[in-house]
Every structure is written in structure tokens, then in C-alpha cells.
Amino acid sequence: LYECEENVCVNGGTCSLIAGDTVCSCLDGYTGINCEELISSPTSSPSLTPSSASLSVLLVIVFVALTVIIGVIVLILVAIFCVQRMKRDLKNPPQSPTKPIPLDDDPEADPEAYELDQRSQEQKDKD
């Protein structure tokens, strides 16, 4: 094995003289008479380059982050609405409907109202 006077090998190949002929010893990943051809790896997918794969991951992360942020904003708005409604209800409690008391003292008009009126009158008399 003798080295060539002029290296005709490319891509890091080593040139040797064997029986008067030049022979290139190629590095891993290269082939051909002068190591000029790149061997394509069977595991690499031509449709999905590393840059597009990282772009896909980035898009998924951005989508998930936006979804979470929007969800938190909606929850905060619902909580604010509920708190405001509770405060309003505490300040202005709903009025319970009551039966109007008749102006005349006719017990037949509304016996229940008459009894309530009598009790309140008796209470006032005791005081």
C-alpha cells in the first residue's frame, strides 16, 4: 500500500496505490470511486426535516399555551361575575311578597291578616 502523490479522493477519503491503481478509502457515510457520493440513511425521512419537526413542536407548544391562557381568563371572568352578583344580592336582598293588610277592620276580608293585626296590637298594648 502506497499513498498517492495526488489525492483524488474527496470528502475526507484516503487515496492508496494498489497494483498501480488509485483506490479511495471513504469515511462513513460516503461511497463511490472518489468518495463523491453521500450515502442516504434509511432512518431519515425526506418529508420531515429537523427544522420542520422543531417547527411542528413549537406550534403545538404555542397552541397549548394559548388554550391554557384563554381558559384561565375565562375562569377569572366567571369568578368576577359571581362575586359581583353575590355582592349585589347582599346589598339588595330580594323582597318576599307579603299580603296587603286591608285598611278596614273587617275580619271576613282576610282572617289571617286580621289575626296578625290583632297580635301586633296586643303586643303594642303590653309595651
UniProtKB/TrEMBL annotation:
Biased region (Basic and acidic residues) positions are 116-127
Q: Which residues cross the membrane?
A: 55-83
Q: Which CDD domains match?
A: EGF_CA
Question: What InterPro entries does this protein map onto?
Answer: EGF
Q: List the disulfide bonds.
A: 26-35
Q: Which domain of life is it from?
A: Eukaryota
Residue ranges, annotated region (Disordered): 89-127
Q: Where is the composition biased (Acidic residues)?
A: 103-115
Q: PROSITE patterns, per this entry? A: EGF_1 (PS00022), EGF_2 (PS01186), EGF_3 (PS50026)
Pfam families hit by this protein:
EGF
What does the UniProt keyword field contain?
Disulfide bond, EGF-like domain, Glycoprotein, Membrane, Repeat, Signal, Transmembrane, Transmembrane helix
Q: Where is the EGF-like domain?
A: 1-36
This chain's protein is named EGF-like domain-containing protein
- Give the organism the record lists: Amphimedon queenslandica (Sponge)
